[in-house]
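hey can u check if this looks right to u? its 257 residues, i copy pasted from the old doc so theres a chance i mangled smth
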Amino acid sequence: MSLKEYHFPRLTKFLLLNYPKGLTNTNSRGIMQKTIIRSKSMDLVGVVFERLTVLEKDPLRDSNGSSKWICKCTCGTIKSISQRSLRGGATRSCGCLNKEICTTHGLSKHRLYVIYKNVVERCKNPRADSYKYYGGRGITICDYWLEDFMNFYNDMLPIYKEGLELDRINSDQGYYKENCRWVTHQQNLHNTRSRMGSSVYKGVSKNKNSSRYTASINKDGEVYKLGSFTCEKEAALAYNKKALELNGEYAYLNKII
């Protein structure tokens, strides 16, 4: 058996058994040392992962820095998929398998599937009405979820309760497991950024008759007026303080620029 047929842990054991002095004690910079270096660079070309056959390596990496591979699905679709998803078994097709699963098990009508499709739409489709507030300003859905609905389903179903809405903890970042949670509609409203009025900050407005700024916040139908400020940033900070007091971890906090 040639060295190339060994996976790296087995290759290491082979070398230690047959070259007890170790590679670093030689001056030859020879074959064995180079073989180890090459073995660290995984070649998946030709490998089959259920419905996917790897064609070539993608020069681009995913959002987590993982290598990606150009794959051909049995349905004929060509798609770039992260190495982590392929080897971990998270992605087994171009998405056609997921569609079959949804059809077979009725998940196409499941509320999580509807939420997932809406997230993809607002992040990826420039024609969507809400795209300018999401994809248009750099909000993305992570590659892992985008590759397969079941990845999103398996990540978020265990903490889901009927009637809750998907919310991003940091509304300036995208959709991925660590930044998403399920909240009530009211909690979701608290963590919604401003759609920009007379100020770039939520809860802040400029007085039409002067150069001063006022800050206010609404909670359960009650408006809290926080005062008038000469500086827009001071008004934004006053809003942040009151938002934390009223809404805690679900508060949207202005990012002071």
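Residues 98 and 148 are 7 Å apart (CA to CA).
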